Amino acid sequence: MEKFKGIFPALLTPFDSDNRINNKALEELIELNIKKGVTGFYVAGSTAEVFLLSGEERKELYKTVKSIAGDRATLIAHVGAIGTDLTIEYAKLAEKLGYDAISSVAPFYYKFSFEEIKQYYFDVVGTVSLPMIIYNFPGFSGVNLSCAQMGEFLSDDRFIGVKHTSNDYFALSQYKMAFPDKVIYNGFDEMMLAGLSMGADGGIGSTYNFMAEKFIKLVELFKANKMEEADALQKNINKIIVALCDVGVMAGEKAVLCEMGLDFGICRKPFGEISADKKKAFLDTVMPLL
Question: What is the CATH number of domain 2-224?
């Protein structure tokens, strides 16, 4: 389980001027983060604009990331979709490619019952040999799994952990206390220190794409009980996140990466572009903090 603990950037998807996936920029990002010392990557999650990709593009993303990273990083494939059959198709591809685990947000939009959601997860995990990490994101999925409901998954050896993108840190603590051998990931970057204090084993985050080193250091400081330094670093991170929220998180992240020399383009519509004036002000604020 150690290979699943630590810092995992939730990879962004770069697009070129023709709105196609820019594999060269993706390779540069992966290499940059491997050099920084990340544990692995979370592929085709929310940050990847996954639900704005076609099925073929999503498959291309799984293949490209694996071909670049190889066995140098732990790879988690987010395979979630509304339909069980499509999710299974992605899960089987991840298995074939040699991913280390799969993950899935709960099926959304139609307000499925818990029994339907439970069946979805067990149907998916039953078709592959890869372990599953539950992606708990009530703010976006509309599905808020209780501690008791989460326990129905974590009590099964095929479910090895939870990506907890929620500010309910009591729930995170309950997961870890009830299942100490499972891996619990903090999901909200701006509350990483809180997540660590409540038992998180690491994090899967969007802003890790361009500042993973800050989160690697944050974990080191927390483990060394250097709490004043850890708190100061979290506050530095949060100044950047406040600026990101003002322009749009993923759009802002891509602007930062472009400023760093990686051609990440812009987000897909219906996401809008940042105006030139706003982008300049944003970068003038953020770049000195990195």
Answer: 3.20.20.70
